[in-house]
Design brief:
By secondary structure, the protein is mainly alpha-helical. Helix content is 68%, strand content 0%.
Length: 87
């Protein structure tokens, strides 16, 4: 199995969450189909057959030291930063 990039995995998880929210708000054939499509994608990406398992695997994959693009990282505050702001 190919390992998805952390960014692709996060996008798939967000897509699934958004589809579930929209389906819960106003369920239609289109929203139900969107949930199914997002669930299928998430399962394929994680090599699983059920959404709860796919979410656990995705969380695990993201927690295993997956690298994050430097552009997406939050800057780390230092004590010097705090001193500069209070000066």
């Amino acid at each position: 199995m190919l390992t998805p990039s952390p960014q692709d995995l996060r996008v798939a998880m967000a897509r699934y969450a958004d589809a579930r929210i929209e389906d819960a708000r106003r369920s239609t054939e289109a929203t139900a189909r969107a949930v199914e499509d997002a669930a299928y994608t998430l399962c394929v990406m994680t090599g699983t057959q059920a959404v709860p398992q796919a979410l656990r695997v995705a969380d695990s994959m993201l927690g295993m030291g997956a690298t994050v693009s430097p552009a997406l990282r939050r800057p780390v505050r230092t004590q010097q930063d705090d001193r500069l702001q209070t000066a």
